[in-house]
Amino acid sequence: MKKVIVYIKTILDIGLFNVLLVIVYRIYTNTFLVFLSFPKKEFKIKNKIFIPGYAKVKIDENETKQYLKHGDSILNGKIRYYSYHDIEFEGLPNWFANPFNDTTIKQKDEHWSKIKDFNHKLGDIKNLWELSRFNWLGTLACAYKFSKKDKYLNHMNILTEDWTGENHPNSGPNWKCGQEVSIRAINIFLSNEIISPNKNSDDLINLIKVHIDRINPTTFYAKAQNNNHGISEGVALYVLGYFIWKELRIKKYFSIHKKGLKLIEDRVNKLILDDGTFAQYSIVYHRMVIDILSFAELFRKKWDLYPFSNLFYFKSNLAIEWYSEMIDFETGNAPNIGGSDGTYLFNYDQKVYRDFRPSLSLASSVFNTPIDKIIKSDHCLMTIFSLNSKLIKKERKLSKEYSLGGLKKLVRLRGKAILRIPKYYFRPSQSDALHLDIWQDGINWIRDSGSFSYALIHTEQKNFSGTKGHSTIEFDGEDQMPKISRFLYGNWLNPVKESFDDKKNTMSAGYKDQKGNSHFRDVKEIDNGWEIIDQ
Predict the structure, then answer these.
(1) Least buried of 36, 165, 245, 317, by fewest C-beta within 10 Å?
(2) What is the pTM of this model?
(3) Does residue 146 contact residue 60 with C-beta atoms inside 8 Å?
(4) b/e per residue, 429-458, with b = 16+ CB within 10 A?
(5) HSE-CB of 35 using CA atoms within 13 angstroms
(6) pLDDT tens figures, 389-405
(7) Could you tell me how far CA 465 lies from the centroid of its own chain?
(8) Cβ–Cβ < 8 Å for 322, 376
């Protein structure tokens, strides 16, 4: 009976309508309806997807060498995963392999709806999806852009044509997730814009159309999840729908463009809180949202489309400000709070994964949002599209609380302490109440362990997203909230006895869990560090 009560309470917290939409999606993908909406078919390349461009951009010689170094690495069979791991391939890549455990999925010809998210033999499906996000395509496009050497353009076509030959539309794992399809389609489109703006082959247009047709019908499911899926899929429909309409004048795709606009506006309004916090309570997913919104605004301006709403810009700037206040000036790193799945969109010049400054600079340049000059960095899209950050000299960051998103931050000379408050407008991905991050001199001395792989077995997950993976109190070896499923906790905690004083540099909060256990934490600055008192 207790479990039933927990489930009912959690359903109400998530929202009955959202749960209903997920149920509808499950039914839909397990009936003949999904085959009618997404028929298996072939996609044949008639000529070349990518055609030569002519607009060479002049950049620093050393910078050019770096782009060519990364491009040559791909030509030599080495592709970077998650902006960190260099994986070598003999010949063409295996699009269905997990390179971290040398396993290959056998269902490349199965309809995507029949493929499970988690296959214990395969491991984490993201290790398979990562290659098919096509970040490597942007790297090759940049190498071609800055050198005009045909070998990079040729390899773009070789790899993309091999992928299309192996991944027939709606067949196999790489068509399963609407967000993954969106990221790939955006990278294909953006890579073409880098090498030959305003020169689009018929094969390119048709390939993007196939992707749009996969994304469009299931955005209701993306929306129901209240996470980054709805934003990324909305941006894909908004930009790519307009692109196809602009090229072919097919009314359907202008309607899809408008649908994307509506979805972006709705999701940004809903998922970015009025203190700038993003719904997933995660620095990495926050970066992803900043990047995808920068991409949308970049092409809205490029095509001189009608501006987004005032509310969109208000919320976007709040999100940029929140993001900037989490970044360490000395290293570009930030607290590893929340989920972290290796995502770093548009990292074509292979920046360090944990350096969050380039995305901030890109957002500043696109949204014309001022950022502190001390935190300035460069981003490959700024170079390609001739963008500049709006730099100002700000006062050093002050202690601040983010009352809606559940964070309190105290700042001292060359250091800070960040306290995670159990305040959830959206489903928590980690059992991390009263986790405390400690930074000093650019080093994250006491830190969050992140989430690692979502495919871990339950006991291993507890070491990362569970209470055990955080600098907080664990009662009787159990999580602070009961785990209902891989991505869902029940009995969401509520904070008690919150306080914050930026003059005395003190903060505190507590909670009481379902079993009556209570934890109260008080943090204050002292001469040589921090004093933490736990009751």
Answers:
(1) 36
(2) 0.95
(3) no
(4) bbbbbbbbbbbbeeebeebbbbbbebbbee
(5) 6
(6) 877 767 666 899 999 99
(7) 17
(8) no
